[in-house]
């Protein structure tokens, strides 16, 4: 569904994305992992269009996006979470969700009477609140929500457009164990409730979460794909183990360990 080929991004002398090939299948949770500075966030920015690429191809359902501006990629079916910055803090959860569904669906109801249109939009907004388990916060002002609930609202805004692919860059960052567990549950729930229509590309450092959630995993090291496969294949891959074990054993000097691992490719 998403097919990336030969993707290239340079920052001066540094090649942050080095001829990356990656494909995401419909409905799968695809995790992107790798050490700090491996180029995970850069790759997500290239996909969403936040950063221009220096070469390669990004196709969504056969449509080339590489030169498209971000809003056209959204129209093509991409959506990403912006880590709370897309939330209107002074508005309630309900108002935030209504604005999001109105932005994406109002055209489908343009022949409806105003009252029916409002009712339809409210139903869609309520469905979203249910999908991210925020029904009980319906009338809460978004800015007063706890951090974890704000992240859930952010996810709801990102899926309001019914995207084909949702990009999540460290959705559990800054969360305590209870909030992390809820977000993990939410991501699993999204997959189940969506009946395999929406795929998720997930960047996450917590390996337990990754192995629990991901159908397939791509490992990036120094901007290059080190390995790509099922969670079981990646877990058993000695090259991947070298990168991660090296980091744990020598937490203060991750660089030599990662280089060693790359040398084994
Ligand atoms: N705007 C930029 N200008 C210059 N260099 C950049 C820029 N953005 C990222 N880089 C560099 O590109 C490399 C990849 O960075 P990126 O943020 O994509 O890594 P990451 O895998 O997301 O890391 P982390 O796990 O720490 O979030 C790093 O060496 C980083 O310093
Ligand atoms: Mg990052």
TrEMBL record:
<dbReference type="InterPro" id="IPR032823">
    <property type="entry name" value="BCA_ABC_TP_C"/>
</dbReference>
<keyword id="KW-0472">Membrane</keyword>
<keyword id="KW-1003">Cell membrane</keyword>
<dbReference type="InterPro" id="IPR051120">
    <property type="entry name" value="ABC_AA/LPS_Transport"/>
</dbReference>
<dbReference type="GO" id="GO:0005524">
    <property type="term" value="F:ATP binding"/>
</dbReference>
<protein>
    <submittedName>
        <fullName>ABC transporter ATP-binding protein</fullName>
    </submittedName>
</protein>
<dbReference type="InterPro" id="IPR003439">
    <property type="entry name" value="ABC_transporter-like_ATP-bd"/>
</dbReference>
<dbReference type="InterPro" id="IPR003593">
    <property type="entry name" value="AAA+_ATPase"/>
</dbReference>
<keyword id="KW-0067">ATP-binding</keyword>
<dbReference type="InterPro" id="IPR027417">
    <property type="entry name" value="P-loop_NTPase"/>
</dbReference>
<feature type="domain" description="ABC transporter">
    <location>
        <begin position="2"/>
        <end position="247"/>
    </location>
</feature>
<keyword id="KW-0547">Nucleotide-binding</keyword>
<dbReference type="Pfam" id="PF00005">
    <property type="entry name" value="ABC_tran"/>
</dbReference>
<keyword id="KW-0813">Transport</keyword>
<dbReference type="Pfam" id="PF12399">
    <property type="entry name" value="BCA_ABC_TP_C"/>
</dbReference>
């Amino acid at each position: 569904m998403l097919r990336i080929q030969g993707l290239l991004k340079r920052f001066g002398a540094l090649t942050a994305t080095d001829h990356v090939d990656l494909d995401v299948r419909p409905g799968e949770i695809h995790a992107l992992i790798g050490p700090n500075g491996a180029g995970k966030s850069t790759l997500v920015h290239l996909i969403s269009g936040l950063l221009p690429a220096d070469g390669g191809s990004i196709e969504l359902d056969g449509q080339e996006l590489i030169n498209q501006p971000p809003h056209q990629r959204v129209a093509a079916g991409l959506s990403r979470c912006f880590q709370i910055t897309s939330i209107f803090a002074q508005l309630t959860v309900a108002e935030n969700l209504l604005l999001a569904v109105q932005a994406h669906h109002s055209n489908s109801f343009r022949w409806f009477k105003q009252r029916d249109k409002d009712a339809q939009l409210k139903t869609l907004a309520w469905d979203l609140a249910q999908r991210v388990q925020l029904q009980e916060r319906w009338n809460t002002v978004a800015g007063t929500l706890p951090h974890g609930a704000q992240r859930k609202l952010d996810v709801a805004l990102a899926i309001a457009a019914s995207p084909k692919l949702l990009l999540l860059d460290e959705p559990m960052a800054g969360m305590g164990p209870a909030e992390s567990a809820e977000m993990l549950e939410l991501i699993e729930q999204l997959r189940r409730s969506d009946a395999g229509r929406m795929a998720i590309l997930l960047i996450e450092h917590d390996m337990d979460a990754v192995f629990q959630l991901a159908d397939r995993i791509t490992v990036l090291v120094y901007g290059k794909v080190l390995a790509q496969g099922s969670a079981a294949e990646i877990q058993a891959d000695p090259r991947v183990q070298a990168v991660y074990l090296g980091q744990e054993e020598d937490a203060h000097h991750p660089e030599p360990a990662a280089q060693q691992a790359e040398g084994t490719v």
